Amino acid sequence: MAGDLKTRVYDEVLKTGFPLELRTAHHLKTRKYHVAHNVYFLDRDEQKGREIDLRALKNMFFNKGKGQYAVRHCLLLECKKSSSRPWVIFTSPVVSYDQDVTGIQTAGARDGMWLELSFETVREFEARHPWFSTPDRGRSYFEPFANSADSNQTIFKALVSVVKALIEVRNAGFGSGAYGAIRNLAFYYPLIVLEGRLFVARLEPSGLVVEEVASIPVSFYYRSAQYADEQQYTVLVVRETEFATEIERLDAWLLEAAAYLKDHTDRFSDPEEKTRLKKGVTTKRSQSKRKKAAPEIKKSL
After folding, report:
1. Is 4 contained in some domain?
2. Within-domain flag for 261
3. By residue range, what is the domain housing residue 95?
4. How far apart are the first and last CA of the chain?
5. pTM reported for the whole predicted model
6. Is 110 within a domain?
7. What is the pLDDT of residue 300?
8. Which of 137, 147, 174, 228 has the fewest CB atoms inside 10 Å of its own CB, making it the most exposed?
9. Which residues of the chain are modeled with pLDDT < 50?
């Protein structure tokens, strides 16, 4: 009987999304990310704590002159298992109001801008970025074969969760700003890792086309009474089978960004700017009010 119970428990565990979360975290750790599970944040809409499945931080350090610098990737991830119903994302070509490479959510950049705004530089980085070089963006979504009118709520809730977590982690100053002798600049990315099948639907001259894909960046705008500062976000929805490839591509881009910032250390915010930000005084380009860096950042240095 004990053996039968163990088998039944094992089978039940496999039905949950937790094994996917463990596999995702393990892969990130092999890529030198510092991974935290079930990180809590305040959901301002509901005024209560919620948790994100994973927060992962990767660091690139360099010295220049007498200065010490770090460029970091901070990933906020939700892991979703959907064995019975595929996810379908409706897409259309990129338009001017979509987030681009200059609008990556950052903290620790001077005036909120990490990249020199020249046409050639922006075009070069955009062409190399694994998300922003793609021609289409997800717009809407649903889960077919569902018996409920709220068949797209799982997708919507996952999108909202990673975006809200990003906002709170970024605003808390995690991974960014001047901390001790090191000046830090962090890029924040929201991702959903899917154990299941993923399809896109788009309109072409011949009509509606539906095809299976490994990943798709989804444009997402969220605004409410408590989140009044609407910003552009791009959430990557990626199948688990493609996750390793996407992280490898994102890490390669981090190397390029770090090399660029080593030659442009003026893009790091200075201590005076950090003081202004802590007092709530921001420039027009600043994306958000930053707060003091979270204590756990020490552990990743």
Report:
1. no
2. yes
3. 18-300
4. 50
5. 0.86
6. yes
7. 43
8. 147
9. 275-301
Please report the pLDDT score of residue 10 as a whole number: 83
CA-based nearest residue to 158, from 103, 89, 95, 104: 89
- Max Cα-Cα span within the chain: 70
Cα–Cα dist 112/294, whole Å: 19
The DSSP element (H or E) to which 41 belongs, if any, is strand 34-43
Task: Identify whether 174 is part of a domain.
Answer: yes
pLDDT in tens, 104-117: 999 999 988 999 88
The two tokens of residue 236 are 């990557």
What are the tens digits of pLDDT across the range 85-95?
999 999 999 99
Q: Are 200 and 210 in contact (CB under 8 A)?
A: yes
pLDDT of residue 29: 97
- Among 14, 32, 35, 13, which residue's Cα sits nearest to residue 24? 35
State the DSSP H helix or E strand holding residue 194, giving kind and residue range, or none if neither. strand 182-204
Distance CA 217, CA 255 (A): 21
Which of 286, 290, 261, 288 minimizes the C-alpha distance to 274? 290
- Token digits of residue 103: 């609008």
